[in-house]
Each structure stands twice: as C-alpha cells, then as structure tokens.
Write a structure and sequence with these properties.
Butyryl-CoA Dehydrogenase, subunit A, domain 3, Butyryl-CoA Dehydrogenase, subunit A, domain 2, 3 domains, globular
Length: 566
C-alpha cells in the first residue's frame, strides 16, 4: 500500500515549521472549540496530530486510489450527455473516496461542517493530490471557492452553501468568456435584477473548470451600460435551480479528467454575493489569489511526481552495462530536478503561511477589534502574501514544466510513449503556467513588489538569520546575489521609460525569486540537514541565473528595446 504523505519527509518538515504554532493558536482562538466539538483540538500538539492524521488519510487515498485511477481517467475522460457532465469512472471513485473520508471543506469552520484547518495543511493536501493526479486536483481543490463565500457572503449564504461543500458537493468559478480571458474587465454575462429583487443570469462562459459543478461562483455584469470592471458583481448559482447547460467539453492536451466546459446561462436564478460593483475589484481578486496558491501546489505535486518517475527509471534502466543514474549527465538532471522541487515547495509553504496569518486576522476582525499590534502584523503578512502568491504561482509552474520535460528526457524514447506515466505528467503540467493567470501576468502582479522593495526587505530580513558554520559560504553567495539584484533594480528604475521597465520586469522578478528560494532552502537546512544537497545545487543554479540577468540588464542600452518590439 502506497502513502503519498508518509513516504515524503519534506511534507512533515514544512508542516512542522516554527510559524505553525502562531498560525494554529490564532486559527483555534486559543482552542475555544475544544468544549464545543468532540474532534476539536485542546492544544497545539493535539491540533498538529490532527493535521498529521488527516494528511495520512489523504496520502493513503492518493497512493492507493487516485494515482491508480489516473491513467484510466486520462484515457476515458468526461463526456456530455443531455447537457450534463458525466465524469470518468475513476473520477467518480476518487470523489466518492474523498467524500467518505471527510476531505471536503477542510478549511471551513466547524460550525459550518468543516475541519477548521489552516490554509497550510490544506495546501499540503492539494500538493499530495496533485502528485497522484493533477487533473483530479482541479475538481477536489475547487472546494477552496467556499472561502470566497465565507469571506464575503451573508450569514444566510454561509449556512445554505458551505455545509453542502463540506458534505462533498463540488464548486466552480465561472469567470472566463469567449471574449474575456485574462481581461476580465470585458466580461459581458448579463445579470438582471427582477422586480422582486432576485437576479437572473444570461450569456455564455467558456473554459470553466468543473463547469457542471453543484455550486458556481459567477462574475457577471450587473450595471446596465457599463463596460469596465466597475460594472461587475459576483453571484452564486445553484445547479438545483436549473438554467445553465453544458454546451461542450473542451478536448484538451492534458488534465483530461477535469471537465473544462462551455456553459450557456438562460434566465439562471442567482444570488448576489456581497455588494454590487465589487465583483472584479474585490471578490475575484481574493478568489484568484486562492486559486493561484492552489496552482502552485498543483505544480509542486507535478514536480514531485516527475522527479520520482525519473529517479526510478534512472535506477532501473541500464545502458552500456550500467544504470543510467551513474552517468554524470543524467545525475545532474536529477539533482537539479530535486533542487527545483525542494525550492518550489519551500516557496509554496512560505506563501501559504503568510496567507494563513493575514486571513485569520481578517476573520478575527469580524469577531472583535484587532489591537494596534495585530493590525500591524496583519498588514505585514497581507503584503507578504500579496507579494509571494504571484511569485509562487509563476515560478513553481515553470518548474513543473521543466521537471516534466526533464523526466521525459531521462526516459529517452520510452518517455515519448504512453506506456510511461511521465508522458501524461508532461501534458498535465503545460497548463499550470497558463491558467489562473499566465506566468507573464504573474510578473505583472509581482513587479510592484520589486519596485516598492517588498522582496528586498524580506531578503534582508532572512539575511540576518544565523546559520551553521558549514552554511556560511552558501549564505555569502546569496548575499552577493542580493547585491546584484539590488543593483539591477536600481539600473532599471533609473531609466524613466515604462516600456523598458516592463521589458526587464521578468528578469527582476526571477532574480528575486531565485534569491528568496535560496534563503528558504538555507532556513530549511538549519532544521533538516538532508536539505543541504538541494541547497547547494539550487544556489549554484540560481547564482548562474541571477548573473545572467544582471549581465543582460547591465549591458543593455534602453534604445535597444526597439529590436524586441513589434
């Protein structure tokens, strides 16, 4: 029997990060639920034991059920019958297993039927599920949409919808339209308020993941005559009420078990979430940040799967009388795959912890007034979460593409055949750097944290941490890389040309990312010496990347940008 949690020590390392004590105590309100619910923890150790046990269940289901079904799901896929989605047989078995194990609504409060888990162990579960089947993660992970209802819905909506999610009903976020992809300000699905105050939706949505879900969050144009984001509101559509049909399922390259649907809304009854006109400006931004963290987890899970497939094959495959893992060219690929995996995972969980703290403070603020110290701390972690989310989504998704590519390379010609799992992983990974905002859009979101100094400030804080004597040399390399980055930022900002700054943004964001991941691995090494090998490999890799970008920026004349523009 396989267990995708217990066979991966890296997960427990991140679960037991020192910041988790603060997260748990805030989340549990000093364990106030202990006398209300039999399964509520009584102290920090009890809570951590609960997370550990639930993640062990996740790992077992993923190893024994979801991973075993993945190939059949990829081949069979979902279909449309009578305007409804029929899941692949294996997908239905996966959902049934997760429902029976109580793995839906993990982060929702106990009073609404959830487990009241912080974001960090929930994201860890998403990491594990993605290793088993990235396509299924898209269905299971959309339970995170309930977070948006919890944050912005009224109490009646919370009581009506969230318990259903916790019991296993599925969700979707219906944002994209045929003429509105990344530019959500162009959404035209029409929301009309009737005389009795109720709303109906009319129009078409496209590329909707799990589009025939039970409960939909829908972005629609509520203000007659408006044409920008200020005319959009957020709605809940309940499939039980009818009014939405599935026109087709897209025939995709990968994640085939996840139905990507085109939906037709025809007088579909809906409920307004929160206030009118804030659909895109406030609610979708919160929804997308959660989704992007989920895609980062999906990317890390794919990196894990790809590395393990490549490692196993390299140990077993012999050429010229030797296992190919003994060849330096192959060993180098594997070591860099592992370093990228560990670096991406370190970034993912740093981001998850930041999200945890600021979201918990936001929730506490609904119950009581925060102290000035709490407000300041909440503001700091909110800024860090805002900075690290696009960094995590952008860089881990690129790593997922690189690692699955390298897994096929190690398999050679066999990797090009459908007989091997790495072929599916390669196809599944490709979407991660595209949906929920392309890597280029993550750069747009991240660059302001370059220009305002958020990344550099955090790097300088990490620079102050004490390390073991054997790690001083690596730290000195990171200090040197930081100076290269700081100089590059100044050089770019010194040119008062927005086109030039936009052109250099990707390089600056990547430089910041490499340094931050280096420091996070250095931090992890202080708690677990087994990380040191990845630390050395990754910092060498990052050093070369930072130097490359620094050289490009330092030797680039602003007028040369004309050579690159169309």
């Amino acid at each position: 029997m396989a267990n995708f949690y217990t066979d991966n020590p890296s997960l427990k390392l991140h679960l037991n990060h020192p910041l988790m004590q603060k997260i748990v105590e805030l989340k549990e309100r000093n364990f106030a639920d202990a006398d209300k619910y039999d399964y509520a923890p009584r102290d920090f150790e009890d809570a951590m034991d609960s997370y550990d046990k639930v993640l062990e269940v996740v790992g077992e289901i993923c190893g024994d059920i979801i991973a075993e079904n993945a190939e059949d799901v990829d081949h069979q896929g979902p279909r449309v019958e009578n305007s409804r989605v029929i899941y692949a047989d294996g997908t239905q078995r996966n959902l049934d297993a997760c429902r029976k194990a109580g793995l839906m609504g993990m982060s929702m409060p106990r009073r609404l039927g959830g487990l009241n888990f912080p974001i960090t162990p929930y994201i860890m579960a998403a990491d594990i599920v993605s290793r088993a089947d990235a396509g299924f993660e898209n269905l299971w992970g959309l339970q995170d949409c309930a977070e948006t209802i919890y944050e912005f819905g009224n109490e009646e909506q919370l009581q009506k919808y969230i318990p259903r999610v916790c019991q296993g009903e599925t969700m979707s976020m219906d944002l994209t339209e045929p003429d509105a992809g990344s530019d959500l300000q162009s959404v035209m699905l029409k929301a009309t308020q009737k005389e009795d105050g109720s709303w109906v939706l009319n129009g078409v949505k496209r590329f909707i993941t799990n589009g025939d879900s039970d409960i939909h969050l829908v972005l629609a144009r509520s203000e007659e005559g408006s044409k920008d984001g200020r005319g959009l509101s957020m709605f809940i559509y309940d499939k039980k009420n009818g009014g939405v049909n599935v026109r087709r399922i897209e025939n995709k390259m990968g994640i085939k078990g996840s139905p990507t649907c085109e939906l037709v809304y025809k007088d579909a009854p809906a409920e307004l979430v929160g206030s009118r006109r804030l659909g895109l400006i406030k609610y979708v931004m919160a929804l997308m940040n959660g989704a992007r963290l989920g895609i980062a987890a999906q990317s890390v899970g794919l990196c894990e799967a790809a590395y393990r497939e490549a490692l196993q094959y390299a140990k077993e495959r012999e050429q010229f009388g030797k296992a190919i893992i003994t060849f330096p060219a192959v060993a180098e690929i594997l070591s860099l795959m592992k370093a990228k995996l560990d670096a991406g995972r370190a970034l993912l969980y740093a981001c998850a912890r930041y999200v945890d703290i600021y979201k918990i403070y936001d929730d506490i603020a609904k119950e009581r007034k925060l102290t000035p110290e709490e407000k300041q701390e909440a503001k700091m972690y909110s800024r860090l979460a805002d900075a690290f989310t696009p960094l995590a989504k952008g860089l881990t998704s690129e790593f997922a593409n690189q690692n699955t590519y390298d897994a096929i390379q190690i398999h050679g010609g066999s990797g090009f055949m459908k007989d091997y799992r790495c072929e599916r992983l390669y196809r599944d990974a490709r979407i991660t750097s595209i949906y929920e905002g392309t890597t280029q859009l993550q750069v747009v979101a991240a660059i302001r944290h370059v220009t305002t100094g958020t990344y550099l400030d955090r790097i300088r804080e990490m620079e102050q941490e004490q390390v073991m004597p054997e790690d001083e040399a690596v730290k000195n390399t990171l200090v040197f890389m930081t100076q290269q980055y700081a100089d590059a930022v100044q050089a770019v900002l010194g040119v008062k040309d927005s086109r030039f700054q936009d052109f250099m943004a990707r390089r600056l964001v990547e430089m910041a990312g490499h340094i931050i991941m280096g420091y996070l691995l250095l931090e992890d090494t202080q708690r677990d010496a087994s990380v040191r090998k990845s630390l050395h490999v990754y910092v060498k890799y990052g050093q070369a990347e930072v130097a490359k970008h620094a050289d490009f920026i330092g030797n680039f004349r602003p007028e040369q940008i004309e050579d690159y523009l169309y």
